[in-house]
Amino acid sequence: MMIQSDAECGEHIDRISSLPCNIIETILEYMPVEDIIKTSILSRKWRYRWTSVQRLEFTNNFFEKSKHFEICSIITEVLFLHNGSIHDFILHIPPNYSIKMQCLGKWLLFLSRKDIKEIQLASLQIDPPQVPSHIFSCQDLTYLHVQGFRLPIAPNFSGFKNLTFLYLFDVIFESDTCEKMVSGCPLLRALTVSNCSGFEHINVSSPVLQYLLIECDQVMKSICLKKAKDLVNLTLWGYRLEDNFEGDWVSDFMKSLQKIEKLHLGGGYIQSKSDAVGPQMVLRGFEFNKCCFSRLQIVNITVGTAYKCALSLIRFVLAKSSSLEILNFKVGFGLNQLSTRSISRISRNLLRMKRASSRAEVKLVRH
């Protein structure tokens, strides 16, 4: 009986509390924030342990469980009771909830004094709210993700000197916010600008940029990557070519891709208009510079029914890419898809093109 009693007692031994503090904090960081706070009632020893957690996440689950309470007050209290550094702050606002931007401004100002390193802000509101200017006070940021907000630039903004990852989705920029924001990040390694509006130019000042994705309804008027010599992965999607588009920058832009390994291009960056740069003009610039994509391995090109400019580009890429492994050419999307005869003609042209890489495989996809 004594042995059984000892075994039963053994089942209630508090093994978690005896773990090293860093392990306990890691466990807490991956728990829902509402459960993290509940640990304060376990014992005196646990009462304030949650206040040292460095990662706080307020997402759909939190909003759903807190819908009968004043959400802004809860988040404010959690932050102001916190003792120590906060490295990661995640706030995803569901479509049927709202947050007072005055509160968000206070949170961001508070976080700027807590050594904040990573911030994710996402709003699914129909009317995008404006990000408070205190976001620019978080000068220690290394990672920033903003989705579904209006983003003005602060008058005294001098850049995010430590930012290495910047992800912008469905953001409405005001004035020249995007240009100033990107050019003010000298250590940027990855940049994504997807479905954003209110900008026409991007000037990357970071010499260590490796990943760039730009996906917008319209083609950019200019992209400057002269300092980004280490770019290895580039995606450009633009569906509308503006009448006042000036394509002179395209040649200089493509010349800067000496270390590119993966290239993804949408139709808007390949087609030409009467007042835009033509494919032959771009290719002359390439030849003059003796451009060679020696590291390029993967290429994806997607166009509609206007495919002739794309073929000129493919011919050049195949001839200049000695490490190329795969080139996917997707053509004919939309209501007016190409005929079978046109597809056959394209296939024959692709087969006749010279290839610098003996391993290069070209796939034609009709969609």
From TrEMBL:
Name the domain of life this protein comes from. Eukaryota
State what protein this is by name.
Answer: F-box/FBD/LRR-repeat protein
Instruction: Identify the PANTHER family for this entry.
Output: F-BOX DOMAIN-CONTAINING PROTEIN, F-BOX PROTEIN-LIKE
Give all residue intervals belonging to the F-box domain. 13-66
